[in-house]
Amino acid sequence: MHKIPVIIDTDPGIDDFFALAVAAASDKLDIRAITPVAGNQTYEKVCRNVENIRQLFRMDGVRIATGAKCPLVSAQRTAGNVHGEDGLGGVILPKAQQKAESTYAWDVIYEEAKRAQGRLQIAALGPLTNIAIAVLKYPDLPSMIDKLFVMGGTNGFGNVSPYAEFNIWADPHAADIVFCCGIKTVNMVGLNLTRQAILDIPEYRRVFSAAGDGPLGKIVTQLIDYLGTRAHGLGNTAMTLHDAIVTAAMSDDKLITYFPSYVRVECQSENAFGQTVVFAGNGNRVLEQGEPNVNVADTLDLERFKSTLSASLEKLKGRVAL
Ligand code: BDR
Ligand code: CA
Asked: Is 83 part of the annotated catalytic residue set?
């Protein structure tokens, strides 16, 4: 079996941590590079988290590029209220020996797309700044990418405003460029999908018991307890690990169903800033719209996702580097 060559564009972020765990444990994915991007926290913090996570999961040989430090046009906004001052809820990971390389994310994405000869898949788990710069700099890049999975947007209620989801809202201009650039398969895994995996803390404890009570188990428990406390502080009783669903979906076509739609990002309005405007779907159509450019995630097989999460942690528990 040929593994799928993938790049993970990410802003860790507690759920990004779990997304990287799922990808690192997968037999089906060949992670070629991780491209950090400012999002949940400032660039320096998320990049340090990526370096530490690469070492923790012994992802030797996986490149880390230098990504974008701020959005294309809008003012920078982070999510320290959810992920903490350091982006990982204050959980201390062993300090990485190896730093990111100085090559820029957009150049690494292009290099890896050429190397993968049409098979490259990208998981975008933060604001879409790196990907937008890549497609602007290299106009032939969209045709070289097999699939782009985006954790972002919503076909329903938002999380930073009634209309907007954090990753898209944090750089809406980048998101609109990426949605319209001509990549043949863009899978938008938005909040309407990731909220189908809202679990409470006891349920997470059951799923995460697979990590054991050694070092990985302790890290995982601290992360989830932190997220749980923050969720309660923000008035929620349970939470979801948005980004981990995306890396699980990369190696499992049966996890999510999608419907095709024309999708644009609202960059002008004050109240709906960052909204993903989904023009058609579930039988509804409006007259004025473009050709479908995005597959909008619709339904999740939750039991399948929980099994993947447990199996990934089970696999990693004996192999973390401390
Ligand atoms: C997204 O925003 C970030 O805070 C999470 O890491 C996830 O990528 C959810 O809206
Ligand atoms: Ca993220």
From this structure: no
